[in-house]
Amino acid sequence: MNAEVASVEERKQNLKGMGTSRRRVEDARFVQGKGNYVDDIKLPGMLFGDFVRSPYAHARIKSVNKEAALAVPGVKAVLTADDLKPVNLAWMPTLAGDVQMVLADGKVLFQGQEVAFVVADDRYAASDAAELVEVEYEELPVLVDPFKAMDADAPVLREDLEGKTEGAHGPRRHHNHIFTWEVGDQDGTERALADAEIVAKEKITYQRVHPCPLETAGCVASMDKVNGHLTLWGTFQAPHAVRTVASLISTIPEHKIRVISPDIGGGFGNKVGVYPGYICSVVASIVLGVPVKWIEDRIENLQSTAFARDYHMTGEISATRDGRITGLKCHVLADHGGFDACADPTKFPAGFFNICTGSYDIPVAHVSVDGVYTNKAPGGVAYRCSFRVTEASYFIERMMDVLARKLEMDPAELRIKNFIKKEQFPYTSALGWEYDSGDYHTAMEKALETVKYKALRDEQKANREAFARGETRSLVGVGVGFFTEIVGAGPIKNCDILGLGMFDSCEIRVHPTGSAIARLGTISQGQGHATTFAQILASEIGIPADQITVEEGDTDTAPYGLGTYGSRSTPVAGAATAMAGRKIKAKAQMIAAWLLEVHDDDVEFDVDRFVVKGAPERFKTMAEVAFAAYNNVPPGLEPGLEAVSYYDPPNMTYPFGAYVCVVDIDVDTGVTDIRRFYALDDCGTRINPMIIEGQVHGGLTEALAIAMGQEISYDEMGNVKGASLMDFFLPTAVETPVWETDFTVTPSPHHPIGAKGVGESPNVGGVSAFSNAVNDAFAHLGLTHTQMPHDHWRVWKTAERLGITA
Amino acid sequence: MIPGSFEYHRPESVDGAIALLNEHGDEARLLAGGHSLIPMMKLRMAVPSHIVDLQAIDSLHGISEEGGELVIGALTTQHEVLTSDLLAAKCPIIPEAAALIADPQVRYCGTIGGNVANGDPGNDMPAIMQALGARFRAVGPNGSRDIAARDYYEAAYFTELEENEVLTQIRIPTPAVGHGSAYEKQKRKIGDYATAAAAVILTVESGRCISASIALTNVASTPLYAEAAAGALVGTDLGADAVDTAVRLAEEITEPTSDGRGPADFRTHVAGIMVRRAIARAQKNAG
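^ inputs. structure came back:
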């Protein structure tokens, strides 16, 4: 294209900047199987590690005999807790202020816990030898039910904490108690409930599930004993934080540690934490002086690596008879398993659960959360959501429906009546969050209009009458869900992990020929960062996105950042990208003015160039300016065209959306058919509509999985039931309905480009919409709430309880 | 998910396979499509020292009709079954059931012989074969014998097949022209075993049921041939009373376990629903 004659529109199109459905630059390698994942890394002399895991949920370890394992040809080492103690690594800190055994130290606290680490020439030898490590266990009473965790006679799980009455988040009142976290006005809330015309109460459990990324967790540790440098490749959602943690616990100086996250096959919160496999690989590499690889298999991942949810919530919501909400109370019993390994900002042991007033103008509220230990795997990660936000959203959206039933009011109408109004933003919620922007009424109205909500309710009425007459055995459910997320953690003033402020960063170098590289502190796990961040920059600095390389994940080259989870990349690193771009632009303007022989203030930016105000024929393109930056800059200005920005966001962002789900339920088999799912998302400014749509499709599919089938459950002995993809519900295209997507745009007022983040919204909003639809199908028969997952047998049992099965 | 070590054999004849079985006894396992055995080996629930791969034995492949019998070689893949014109024309319940097994990738490798031979109660073909009155040809050191599908299954993973025998063929009496059949399977997702499934085969003349057979999948440790339930249909016009009786009799013989698919009472109930729906559909496509 000739830069001189191209129209403004053509020049904009050439940039492929914000608002363009630019094709993902990552996909060329992914669809050809040419990605570079951690298990693709092969180093000379590399050994393989494999774990011996506990078959018991709670047992004392009497002895470990390694002899037979060490005799297997090719086996180089077998590590146990006793081997890690001299280097002070038998235990490691968790992100939640607790400590966790790296290898079982005296006892095991969950089935699948890591007991010994076998290192061998190949995976086969390691696996053969792992079977031959003889561990003598003495079984102990097992605690599975979190509601029994704080019984007086409950077994003591954490002997290491004996006598400790103060935990990381305040006082502990029982040997299995981790913390109590309270927010809000307790007295005011109690008064509101006592004075209310209507109070609805419900026990709502969000079952234990698992993020189950397609690629499991793993790493390769390589210690160079000559120069003392450790290189660690891994499936890390936060490589820089991993480097700092690795340095703190290994005492290797941080400048001698290089952490690299290569391509990652999905994270969903599962790859934020630090796991025993990482520590053992590092130790083994240090001991043996060669690289050590560890890759967990699917069953290990589901059984031991960072579950999500497991929140047992009791809610009370009060209202006037005409449906105006007057108060909300919630108590949560949080099952954290054997160690508190949640990945939440330090000051938030229950994450941002206090977003549970949702999208509604609720005058007073109170939340308390009790975290307890049980004989289950540790975790409690944010599975495709910001910290505990999907739990909060599920809670309030179920409570809204429960209240609507009690009021005999349409659930959509109740929501609309209580929405925070557009003019109330910025809005401070009763539980302390400042919502940045929103227009809930417009979004809801658009959703209801598009799905023809009134007609759906009419159809449902006719269906129920036909059902009563015995003409059909199928019931229709209509689920309405509205959500407000809180993402983009977060302002350093209240968000840190292990003391590291949750800023993020971008460093840009513009090359002489007018192309550029941008490096960020985040790391894509499939989100398409290399595509979208280049688009932000293209719009900001006028260099075509196709000429901008985006690089992340190597701590030796990328600026420090806190990584990718909690929909924080666009709100935080995206903002840093825009801000760094603006620094580039400011310097470029000075160079352009110099070249055009006018004052800095007499030129203005125009898509891909600087033009002299009032004389558009006089201009310098960004490419020309870039070249000049390396040979002809104004006196007093340094050559080069680079910038870095570390962005500390002033606030979180608050994406929102309106979802409607229509389900047909066969009451004879419990089979559910999602006939229609409509999702309207408002994520503020839209950078790449195609990627947004893809994110919504993926998030809704995970929400479908959670609502309709996913569950990590335990029998009374603490055995994990169904920890394989035979039982753990990972929907295929066949089980996945067609997703209808839509949007409104309400930019964030504090974000440099107004973007809010979208990756997690569909999971946060989707789960409750599915669940509301299933509950709604039976509402006329008196059902107020039935627990997830809504798999066939549970749906049938619900129908049976309601007396409508044959 | 790493199997133990084993020696791999690839005989080119049934006799060669039998010789290897004789030589290695219970340390040897036959490998057909591998979709039952290999996962078990990865979990180290099966740790055979010798794998005898049957793929190279040409005589074990193919589908034909011989003297009133449909003959399916044991190594015939589910995909080949699914796309067979002969089966589609003469015995459509087999391709119908094959389409409900796992996913295309599995069906390209998984074989019908492996599906019936192993005694996995989750597999679909055993109940189909019981409903069809099929016989399995077993060849061993002392020659060959035929075992009725209805007598073949003893318990989960225990069958009439001797350790040194190879199941070479499935022989099915060609169903009557105009018969009606249906396989109804409820499952949680693609690739899953049945919560419960029912195979029904009927012949109907002038509105009366002349013959019926019913078999059930995954509601006991073996497939269940529901003889009494089928008997309740014969001689009737397949009216509500007869169907209700058949459903009740089918439910009565189920002994499902409670698992991720649901508690036992639910799975028994679903078995009844599947029988009811399969009867209705088989009746509809009869004639």
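Chain A has three domains: 8-35+504-647, 38-140+216-264+271-304, 387-488+653-801. The mean pLDDT of chain A is 97.
thumbs up if we can close this ticket
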